[in-house]
Amino acid sequence: MQKLxxxxxxxxxxxxxDASNLWSIQKSKKKPFDYAKLKAAxxxxxxxxxxxxxxxxxxxxxxxxxxSLDGKHKFFTFLSKGLDFVVRKKVLKRIFCLVxxxxxxxxxxxxxxxxxxxxxxFKNQYDTAVLMTGDSxxxxxxxxxxxxxxxxxxxxxxxxxxxxxxxxxxxxxxxLRLEQDIWGGQLHHRADS
Length: 193
Hints:
Elements: E1 13-18, H1 19-29, H2 35-45, E2 51-59, H3 70-82, E3 86-91, E4 93-99, E5 102-108, H4 112-121, E6 128-132, H5 139-147, E7 151-156, H6 163-168, E8 171-174
Parallel strand pairs: 1-2, 1-6, 2-3, 6-7, 7-8
Antiparallel strand pairs: 4-5
């Protein structure tokens, strides 16, 4: 288990969760995050109760799946009303591409711009930023925030983080190796359709 430093005092902590990027971590663990436990673990790690959590996700448009999206929307409501997260969501962008003679649909679920705008916009309201992502595109944001005297910690895992991001912040923590329990029950993954 990964031992966390006892000397991390985050002051006011803003947590930015890139839900799409963390999906591979949950698949490798075969368990979903329990976001109530995750929030409690972060409060403990940063010795702070002054924590605000932002959750970024994209979801399928109505009529693009054979299953109901009600569960997904109930989950967003739980995060927002039950755990006091700020949920930033948008419909998946659908791009029609021609491959040979076949038309296929690619879906983009990127929320990097929204996450970056919030991290910059609210920077005067926090002392420590926690980026829960492994995407190397966030290295510029990390550098920007550190240059503005913010502490920046990255939470991801070895199977989904870029080397640049892992070493670019003030600390890196592997979600698969945290000593705190942050996991829910068995992961039931539905194939996209």
